[in-house]
Structures are given as C-alpha cells and as structure tokens.
Write a structure and sequence with these properties.
four-stranded antiparallel β-sheet; alpha+beta; about 90 residues; TTHA1013/TTHA0281-like; Type II toxin-antitoxin system HicB family antitoxin; single chain; Double Stranded RNA Binding Domain
C-alpha cells in the first residue's frame, strides 16, 4: 500500500512556490525553491492526513498526476500511523 498524492507547485510573484494537493485540499505549504517546497509538502501532507484520521474521515484516494504535477509520497512512519489508525477505527 503506497500513498502518493499529486501536487501542484505554483510560483508567486516573488518566485516562491506554493504547493497544493487536489486530493487533500487541507494540505497547503510552500518553499523558496522546488527542493524546499517538496520537502515541506511531505510534512504538510502527513499533517493533513493525520487530521483526517483524528476527525475519523476517510483517507482520500490518490488520483493520477496530471500534466505538470509532482507526486509526493507519505513517509513510512506516516503510512504505519494511517494503517494502524484505519484498523483501530474499523474495530
């Protein structure tokens, strides 16, 4: 089971990048360049998905990336948390 979500990197007028996830609209972050933005995106995605778990919402399914989108995967520790939480909520 892999959770990798497509994200969009949108430059602002200063050249910074805003990162949004179409499948997880609560996950929004940014960075001064592509590397920093994608690093921050992993954290924003993990935080948003943890919020879904705590609210007992279904974890969004991942869509296929569109043109110009990047894939961001959740970390192994986040994946373990999501799987365990889903199991606990179903019990």
């Amino acid at each position: 089971m892999i959770y990798a979500y497509p994200c969009e990197l949108t430059p602002d007028e200063e050249g910074n990048l805003t990162v949004t996830f179409p499948d997880v609209p609560e996950a929004i972050t940014g960075g001064k360049d592509r590397t920093e933005a994608l690093m921050m995106a992993e954290d924003a995605l993990a935080t948003a998905l943890a919020g879904y778990v705590h609210a007992q919402w279904e974890i969004p399914t991942t869509s296929q990336p569109g043109a110009g989108q990047e894939l961001v995967a959740v970390s192994r520790s986040t994946l373990i948390f999501l799987v365990r939480s889903r199991t606990c909520h179903r019990s």
